[in-house]
């Protein structure tokens, strides 16, 4: 594999073609159109791969701050973690019993000769090894985004969260950080509507507010 020991972006000479960069950026954009596979369970409108990666990067940032980890590295790892799904798609825990994707080949061929190829390769190597605190945090964030989404579905009236409760408890036992475990418990106790109900709004601070008599 290519290496990127310092995490710096290597300089490229003038012979490199910018078209390689344009192609991978177009391909990354298509992650917006790839459904995550557990949409099959209940047919609910779960986030696509790009949306999932977006929020999990922020979940990772929160965990990193609490755990004293490198926030910038966590964000990079989070944004890169599902890029090969552009070519392999996403598989749920049933489908993975029957298929074995060549993720390494998908990632290598997707990277091509783009400016980020060496950097992406180093990020994937770190994620696969799962040794650094940053890699462990990203794994936790990847799992926790599912619980955020399940809670949102529950608050919409969908009961899939109850059906999947045993699998989510099993996932909780795999979480690496204390912060992730605290988030897991809080997500399941907290309403997904609390943020806007408690924000300054027309009901509690505006023209809908009723004056005390």
TrEMBL record:
Listed cofactors: Mn(2+); Co(2+)
Keyword Chloroplast: no
Tagged with keyword Metal-binding: yes
GO molecular function: 5'-deoxynucleotidase activity; metal ion binding
GO CC list: cytoplasm
Stretches assigned to the HD/PDEase domain: 45-156
InterPro entries assigned to the protein according to its UniProt record, in alphabetical order: HD/PDEase_dom, HD_domain, YfbR/HDDC2
Subunit structure comment from the entry: Homodimer.
UniProt-listed PANTHER family: 5'-DEOXYNUCLEOTIDASE HDDC2 (PTHR11845:SF13)
Name of the protein described by the UniProt record: 5'-deoxynucleotidase
Organism annotation: Methylosinus trichosporium (strain ATCC 35070 / NCIMB 11131 / UNIQEM 75 / OB3b)
Taxonomic placement: Bacteria, Pseudomonadati, Pseudomonadota, Alphaproteobacteria, Hyphomicrobiales
């Amino acid at each position: 594999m290519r290496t990127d020991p310092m995490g710096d972006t290597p300089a490229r000479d003038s012979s490199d073609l910018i078209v390689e960069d344009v192609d991978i950026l177009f391909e990354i954009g298509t992650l917006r159109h790839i459904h995550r596979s557990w949409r099959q369970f209940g047919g609910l409108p779960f986030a696509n791969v790009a949306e999932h990666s977006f929020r999990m990067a922020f979940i990772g940032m929160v965990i990193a701050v609490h755990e004293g980890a490198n926030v910038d590295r966590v964000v990079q790892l989070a944004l890169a973690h599902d890029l090969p799904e552009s070519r392999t798609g996403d598989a749920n825990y049933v489908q993975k019993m029957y298929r074995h994707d060549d993720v390494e080949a998908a990632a290598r061929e997707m990277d091509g000769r783009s400016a980020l190829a060496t950097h992406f390769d180093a990020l994937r190597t770190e994620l696969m090894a799962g040794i650094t605190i940053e890699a462990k945090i990203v794994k936790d964030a990847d799992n926790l985004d599912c619980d955020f989404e399940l809670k949102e579905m529950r608050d919409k009236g969908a009961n899939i969260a109850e059906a999947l409760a045993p699998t989510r408890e099993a996932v909780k036992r795999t979480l690496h950080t204390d912060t992730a475990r605290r988030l897991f418990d809080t997500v399941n106790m907290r309403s997904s509507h609390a943020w806007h109900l408690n924000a300054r709004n027309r009901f509690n601070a505006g023209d809908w507010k009723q004056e005390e008599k």
